[in-house]
Amino acid sequence: MAEIALSNVRKSYGPTEVIHGVDAEIADGELIVIVGPSGCGKSTLLRMVAGLETITSGEISIGGRVVNDLEPRERDIAMVFQNYALYPHMSVFANMAYGLKIAGVPKAEIAERVGQAAKMLELEPYLDRKPRQLSGGQRQRVAMGRAIVRKPSVFLFDEPLSNLDAKLRVQMRVEIKTLQRRLAVTSLYVTHDQVEAMTMADRIIVMNGGNAEQVGTPLSVYNKPATVFVGGFIGSPPMNFLQAARLQASGLLRKVAATAGPAEALDTVGVRPEHLSFCEEGAAVLSGKLVIAEALGAETLAHVELDDGERMIVRVDGGREVPAAGARVHLSCGAEHLHYFGADGKRLPD
Amino acid sequence: MHKRVVFNNRVLPYLLLAPQILVTLVFFFWPAGQAIYQSAYIPDPFGLSSQFVGFGNFEFLLSDRYYLASFKTTVIFSTLVTVLSMGAALWLAVMADRVIKGSSAYKTLLVWPYAVAPAVAGVLWLFMFNPNVGLVAWYLKAMGYDWNHVLNDGEAMGLVVVASAWRQISYNFLFFLAGLQAIPKSVIEAAAIDGASFARRFWTIVFPLLSPTTFFLLVVNIVYAFFETFGVIHTITAGGPQQATTILVYKVFSDGFVGQDLGSSAAQSVILLFVVGLLTVVQFRYIERKVHY
Amino acid sequence: MSGMVEKHGLGIWLTHLGLIIGIAIICFPIYMAFVASTVTQPEIARPPMPLLPGGHFIENYTAALTRGVNSPVLLMLFNSSVMALGITIGKIVISIISAYAIVYFRFPFRMAFFWMIFLTLMLPVEVRIVPTYEVVAGFGMLNSYTGLILPLVASATATFLFRQFFLTVPDELIEAARVDGAGPVRFFIDILLPMSRTNIAALFVILFIYGWNQYLWPLLITTKPDMNTIVMGIKQMFPSGDDIADWPVIMATTLLAMLPPVAVVIFMQGLFVKGLVESEK
Questions:
Q1: Chain B residues close to C43, C-beta within 8 Å
Q2: Is C181 in the A-facing interface, judged by CB distances under 8 Å?
Q3: Residue B132's closest CA among C37, C41, C38, C59?
Q4: Are A51 and C195 within 8 A, CB to CB?
Q5: The domain spanning residue B140 has which CATH number?
Q6: Closest approach of chain C CAs to the CA of A102, in angstroms?
Q7: Could you give the CA distance from residue A59 to residue A139 in angstroms, rounded to a whole number?
Q8: Residue B72 confidence (pLDDT)
Q9: Which candidate in A172, B1, C6, C59 could, as Cys together with C11 as Cys, close a disulfide (CB 3.0–4.6 Å)?
Q10: How far apart are CA A282 and CA B180, in angstroms?
C-alpha cells in the first residue's frame, strides 16, 4: 500500500513540452481518475507513473520512494491496458501468472494467487483458454486479474473500458470500483469519459492541454469548476456559458471585487442546465425560442436558442410539461447557481 | 513505423546484429569489394602479379563480340522465359478461377513444380529431349523433324527456355490466381450485365485490374531468368552450342572458373551488380507504390 | 472471376478439360522420369522407351541409394539435408535476432546496419561467384558443411519479413511485459518468439526449398564426391564423352532429389503460400 506524489512533473518530446508541470498527492488506497479530452496528456502522465515514459523534469514518488529512474517492474505497480495487452499465445492462467513467474514466486503460491484472483473475477472456468476464445468483458477481467495477482501497491488503469460496449461498460465500472474498494489499493485511472470519472473517482484530476486544471472530489469539481474548461467538460449536458455583459441588466450578478488586472475581471458566467427553468415573461432573465426538446424519460433536455443566436440547454424533470418546439420561452435562474469566470477562464473567488 | 516503446540496452542490440552483419561483411561486402578491385586488374598467366588496367577490362568486355552476344542471349532468353511462363500461368489461373469445384485440387497439382530445383528441371527436360534416348526427340524424329539441341542453336535455346519457364509457372500461377480472386465479383458482374462477352470482360476489366500483379511478376520473372536459371543451363546445354545459351551469369562462371580469366570475370560481376541494383530499385519502387495505394 | 455467368454446361467442362490438359503437360516430365526409374537401361537405350512403368523400381532405387554413380545417393541426401537445414535454421535465427534488434532498440548506426542488410538483396551468389569462392577457399572451407552453409545464411528477405511482423505487434504487449518485469531477452523468448511461430514456419518452408535447391554454390565448393549434394550430384552422374548414361539410376536420383521439397510444398501448402506471399512484400 502506498501513496503517490507528483511534484512539478513535466514531459517534453524534443522542444515540445506536452506536460506542463503537474502536482498531485494521492493518498493510500485512494482511487484517482485522470480525465480529459484526447491529447490532453493524461495517458502520458499515467505512463510516466508506470515507468513506460521517461520524466523530463519533476519528481514522482510512490510510497515515499522517488521512482523517476526505476524500471516499471521495480515500482511495485500493475497496469491494465486499453486493449488489454494479453499475451495471445498464453492461456488465461499463464497470462496472469507471467509476472509472478518472472519474479520467481514458487509454483504453488502462483497457483494459489491466480486461483484466488480467478475466483474473485469469476474466471475459474476459463483458466485454460486462450485470450482469443474470450469475450471482451472476460478479456477485461483477465487483464484485471493479471494486475491483482501481483499484489502491487499501485494499480494503473489506461482507459480500460473504452473497448467495451455501453452496457458492459456500466457493469465493469461498478466491478472495478467494488474490487478497488475491497483491495484498498491506491489506483490511478485514466479515461476520457466524464461519467466514468464522476462515478468511480474518490478524487478527479481534470487535464487539459498538458495542465492539471483541477484536482478534487467529483462533486466539488462539478459544483465548483475551477475553469471554464472544467465546467464544460464535467457534466453532461455541459454547463451553459454566457458573456457576463448579457446578464448585466438582469440584476442577478453579484458584485465582483475588482482585485487585480483585467484577466481577473468578470468575463463569462456559467450555469448548469438543471439550474435553468422555464418561467413567465415577467420573471425572465433570458428569452428565446425552443428549438427541440429531447425527452429522455427521467428528464427532458430542452435546447433553447436565445434572441442573439446563443444556444442554452435546460434540464427539466421528466414529468414536467415542456413547451412545444418553436414556442417562445423564458428562462430564469437563481443567482446562487451562477459560476463566475475571469477573462483567463479561471473561476473567480466566491 | 516505429515502436513507441523500446528497450534501453547499450550492448544487446549489437550482439543481436553481430552474426548477420559479420556474415554480410565477410561473404557479401568483402567479395563485392574484391570484384570491384579485381575488375581493374589483369593478372599475369601465372597468377604471380597483376597489372592495373583501370577500366580496361570493361572497355574490352563492352567491345567483346562474345560478351555482347551473351548480353543479347540473356535478353532473348529472359523475354522468352517471362512471356512463356507468365502466359501459361495466366491461362491456367483464369481457368482455375472459373471452376469452383476442385479448384484447390488443381492448385495443389500446379504448385509443386516450384519446389523442383532449376537443375533438376533441366535434367527432366534433357531426358525427354535427349537426341539419343529422349522420348519426345524420338517422336519428333518419327514425324520427320530431326531434333538435336546439342548441335542446333535455336533448339538449345528453346529447350532451356521451356525448362526454365516450366519451373516458374507455379509461382506465377499462385500470384495470378490470388490476384484474380481479389477482384471484386460485383465489378465483373456489372460488366456481364452491360453485355460484355467473356473475352471482352477479360481484356477490358480483369486484365487492367490485374496489372499490379502482372508488373510485380514481370520483375520477379526477369530476376529469375537472369540469375536463377544457371542450373537449367548448366545441366542441359552448358552454355552451348557455341555459346548460344551462354547467359551473363553463366559467362561469369565459365570465364572465371573454366577459363580462369579472373579480371574479366570480376568486371562481369560488377556489371551484373549494376543490373541487380537496377532491378532491385525497380522492384523497390513498385513495393513503395503498393504500400501507398 | 468466379462470379462469371457461364458457369454451367459446356463452358465449365471445357474449362476443366483445359486445366487437366495443362496439368498433364506440366506433370508429364515427372511421369517420364518415374517411368525411366522403373525400367532397365537397355529399354531406354533403344528408343522409344516404354510409356508405362516397368518392374525394376526397387532395383533401381536401391542401386541409386546405396551405390549411385560417383557416391551413394543416400550420402548425397544426407549432405543436402545438412545444407538445407543449416541454411534454413541459420537464416531464420540470424534474421529474427537482427530484426528484433532493429525494431525494439534504439542505438547508434541502427539505420546504417539496416541499409547494410538491405544491400545484400542486390548481391546474389551468382553475381559474386569468383570472389566469394576465393574468400571461402581462403578460410579453408572448401568441401565442408560450413563452407556450404555459412556464405548463404545472411538474409535480407527474412530480416524484412520479421521486421514487418514485429511492427504489427501491439506496443502494449511490450509495455505489459515490462510491467510484468520482463527484460529484452525474456520478452523475446517468452512472448515474441511464440507469437512468430506461424511466420517462422512459413519462412522455414520457403527457405528449406531455397537451401535444398542450391546448385551453383555446392558445385563450386565441393570437389570431393562424398561432399556432393543431391541436386548438384545428378549432373556429375552423367558420363563425360560418349558413354551411355545410366538413365534409370539417374532418373531415380532425380526423383529422390525432388521428393523432400515437393513433399514440403504439398503437405504444407498453406504455410508455403503464406511464406511465398509474405517474402515478396
A1: none
A2: yes
A3: C41
A4: no
A5: 1.10.3720.10
A6: 6
A7: 34
A8: 93
A9: C6
A10: 76
Which strands, in side-by-side order, build the sheet including A16-26? A16-26, A4-13, A57-62, A65-66
Taking the C-alpha atoms of residue A342 and residue A244, their distance in angstroms, rounded to an integer, is 10
pLDDT, tens only, C240-251: 766 678 889 999
Mutation for C interface: A44, A70, A83, A159, most C CBs within 10 A: A83
Nearest CA in chain A to C198: A89
Residue A346: φ, ψ to 5°: -90, 150
**What digits encode the pLDDT tens for the residues A190-229?**
999 999 999 999 999 999 999 999 999 999 999 999 999 9
Provide φ and ψ at C250, rounded to 5°: -60, -45
Task: Work out the pLDDT band at A249, boundaries 50, 70, 90.
Answer: low
A98 touches chain C (CB under 8 A): yes
Complex-level ipTM beyond the 0.95 threshold: no
The answer to whether residue B35 is domain-embedded is no
From A198's Cα to the closest Cα of chain C, the distance in A is 27
> Does pLDDT of A260 surpass 60?
no
Tell me: pLDDT of B292 over 60: no
Residue A315 banded pLDDT, cuts 50, 70, 90:
very high
Length of chain B: 293
Q: CB of C179 within 8 Å of any CB in chain A?
A: yes
Retrieve residue B82's grid coordinates.
517471362
Ordered DSSP codes for B168-232:
HHHHHHHHHHHHHHHS-HHHHHHHHHTT--HHHHIIIIIHHHTHHHHHHHHHHHHHIIIII-HHH
Alpha carbons B74 and B69: distance in angstroms, whole number: 9
A297: left (phi over 0), alpha (psi -120 to 50) or beta: left
Residues of chain C with C-beta less than 8 angstroms from the C-beta of B127: 29, 32-33, 36, 247, 250-251, 254
- Write the pLDDT tens digit of every residue in B84-111: 999 999 999 988 888 877 778 888 888 8
CA A83-A88-A91 angle, to 5 degrees, is 115
* pTM for the predicted model, two decimal places: 0.84
In a domain, residue B11? The reply is no
B30 within some domain: no
Whether B241 is in a domain gets the answer: yes
Neighbours of chain C (3+ CB pairs under 8 A): A, B
- Residue pairs between chains A and C whose CB atoms are closer than 8 Å: 63
Gap between the Cα atoms of A268 and B97, Å rounded: 69
The domains of chain C are located at: 71-228+256-278
Q: Which residue of A has its CA nearest to C177?
A: A99
Write down the H helix ranges in chain B. 12-24, 30-38, 56-63, 65-98, 103-111, 118-129, 135-142, 153-182, 185-193, 198-201, 207-209, 211-223, 230-236, 248-253, 262-292
Among B37-41, B181-185, B192-196, C37-41, top mean pLDDT goes to: C37-41
**Is residue A150's pLDDT more than 90?**
no
Residue A207, pLDDT score = 94
pLDDT confidence tier of residue B2, bands split at 50, 70 and 90: low
pLDDT of residue A208: 93
The average pLDDT across A263-279 equals 84
Q: What is the pLDDT of residue A185?
A: 93
CA distance C91 to C83: 12
Q: Does C178 touch chain A (CB under 8 A)?
A: yes
Q: Which amino acid is at A118?
A: A
**Options 1.20.1090.10, 1.10.3720.10, 3.30.2320.80, 2.40.50.100; which CATH number does C71-228+256-278 get?**
1.10.3720.10
Residue of B nearest to C46 (CA): B133
Q: How many domains does chain B have?
A: 1
Distance from CA of A98 to the nearest CA of C (A): 7
Residue B136 lies in domain: 65-291
Q: What percent of chain B has pLDDT over 90?
A: 32
